[in-house]
């Protein structure tokens, strides 16, 4: 990357290392009085250095509002953008010149020599600020992506299960709930198979067995199946999920081939 600290008489230049980790001050460009020519010269400089982006310092007021110099800088940056295909971006340059002056004074540089390097040092601060910003954004994006992946994995682990029928065929299903009814536990599933038409069909299986050796088995008693499903709907209604419960249909259908029965319910 390359950065410019754009002034009326001089333009400070700074470049980054190939890995965009730090900024180095370059030579100060002395303006010719022809803004378009200056823009073309800086565009050629950026292209010759192989810059992937041009960062222009944006001189804002202390409160962040635009100043007369801000508008001048924007106009010059527009000329730069017209002179090259390299993307042109802005970076807040408030206080960078002041900081560069402080560094030069601390280094014992005499006043008459400061003007030869102050603009490029200011440009290096502009570039460092921009590099820090994009690195921070990259880190935040990576953390956000990692968080999304973790959430997706957790949701998948909690909700998506595989049921195996008597023939050994695997059926992907969403686990939509588990309830206790008359000293028994019942699990409710909906199909998650790709390519199947969207349906509100519910599969009800009873959980039997001791801790660590539980099994899911079909409910053969249709009267009990009705009662379990009614209890499931009641629980869903209590959980403010009545709309979903009411959308299910009450007829049995022999369905997925896993030895279970499907229970549908429609609001009458």
What does this structure look like?
With 268 residues, the chain is an alpha+beta fold. It folds into two domains: 2-141, Nucleotidyltransferase, domain 5 (2-Layer Sandwich), CATH 3.30.420; 158-263, no CATH class. The protein is built from seven helices and 13 strands. The strands form two sheets. Strands 7, 8, 9, 10, 11, 12 and 13 form a seven-stranded antiparallel beta sheet that branches. Strands 1, 2, 3, 4, 5 and 6 form a six-stranded mixed beta sheet that branches. Strand 1 and strand 2 form a beta hairpin.
Whole-number radius of gyration?
34 Å
Question: What is the overall silhouette?
Answer: rod-shaped
Average per-residue pLDDT, rounded, comes to: 77
User: Which second-level CATH architecture of the largest domain applies?
Assistant: 2-Layer Sandwich
- Strand fraction: 25-35%
What about the largest sheet? 7 strands, antiparallel
Please give the alpha-carbon distance between the first and last residues: 68 Å
* The CATH topology of the largest domain: Nucleotidyltransferase, domain 5
User: Structural class from helices and strands?
Assistant: alpha+beta
Specify the CATH class of the largest domain. Answer: Alpha Beta
CATH homologous superfamily grouping of the largest domain = YqgF/RNase H-like domain
Helix content: 40-55%
Number of helices: 7
For the secondary structure, the number of strands is 13
| Contiguous runs where pLDDT drops below 50 for at least 5 residues | 97-101, 103-114, 249-268
Structural domains: how many:
2
> How do the SSEs run, as a string of H and E?
EEEEHEHEHHHEEEEEHHEE
């Amino acid at each position: 990357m390359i950065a410019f600290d754009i002034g009326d008489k001089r333009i400070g230049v700074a470049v980054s290392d190939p890995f965009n980790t730090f900024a180095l001050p370059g030579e100060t460009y002395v303006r010719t009085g022809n803004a378009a020519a200056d823009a073309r010269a800086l565009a050629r400089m950026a292209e010759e250095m192989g810059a992937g982006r041009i960062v222009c310092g944006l001189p804002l007021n202390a409160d962040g509002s635009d100043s007369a110099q801000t508008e001048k800088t924007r106009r010059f940056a527009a000329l730069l953008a017209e002179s090259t295909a390299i993307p042109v971006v802005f970076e807040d340059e408030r206080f960078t010149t002041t900081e560069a002056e402080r560094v030069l004074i601390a280094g014992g540089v005499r006043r008459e020599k400061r003007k030869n390097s102050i603009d490029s040092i200011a440009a290096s601060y502009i570039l460092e600020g921009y590099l820090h910003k994009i690195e921070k954004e990259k880190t935040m994006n990576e953390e956000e992506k990692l968080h999304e992946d973790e959430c997706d994995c957790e949701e998948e682990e909690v909700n998506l299960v595989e049921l195996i029928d008597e023939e050994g065929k695997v059926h992907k299903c969403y686990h939509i709930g588990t309830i206790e009814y008359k000293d028994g536990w019942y699990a409710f599933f909906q199909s998650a198979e790709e390519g199947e038409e969207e349906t509100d069909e519910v599969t009800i299986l009873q959980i039997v067995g001791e801790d660590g050796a539980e099994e899911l088995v079909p409910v053969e008693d249709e009267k009990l199946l009705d009662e379990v499903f009614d209890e499931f709907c009641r629980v869903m209604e209590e959980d403010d999920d009545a709309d979903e419960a009411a959308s299910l249909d009450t007829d049995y259908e022999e369905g997925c081939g896993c030895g279970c029965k499907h229970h549908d319910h429609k609001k009458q």
